[in-house]
Amino acid sequence: MLVTKKKSLSAIAWPSGRGNETDEERKARKLRQREAKRVNDAINKELEAERQKIHKNKAGKILLLGQAESGKSTVLKNFQLHLAPRAFELEADIWRPVIHLNLVRSVNFIVNLAMSRGQLPRQDNPKVPRGPRKLSSSLTPELRKLTLRLAPLRQLEEHLIQILSGRPQVVNDSGVTIAQPYVPTKAPDITLSAGTQWRKTMTVQRQHSIDSMSSTASRESSEVVQCRRMLTALSNDIEALWANRSVQEMLKTAEITLHEQPGFFLDQVKRVTSENFRPRPGESLELNNRVNSRFDIITVDDVLKARVNTLGPEEHTIVAESGSDKAKHYTIYDVGGSRSQRNAWAQFFDDAPMSGFNQVLDEDTNVNRLTDSLRLWQSICSNRILAGVEFVLFLNKLDILESKLKSGVQFSEFVTSYTNKPNETEPVSKYLLDVFIRIHKQYSPKRRKLHSYLTCAVDTKATADIITKIQDVILLKILARVNLV
Ligand SMILES: Nc1nc2c(ncn2[C@@H]2O[C@H](COP(=O)(O)OP(=O)(O)OP(=O)(O)O)[C@@H](O)[C@H]2O)c(=O)[nH]1
Ligand SMILES: [Mg+2]
Question: Does pTM top 0.90 for this prediction?
Answer without folding.
Answer: no
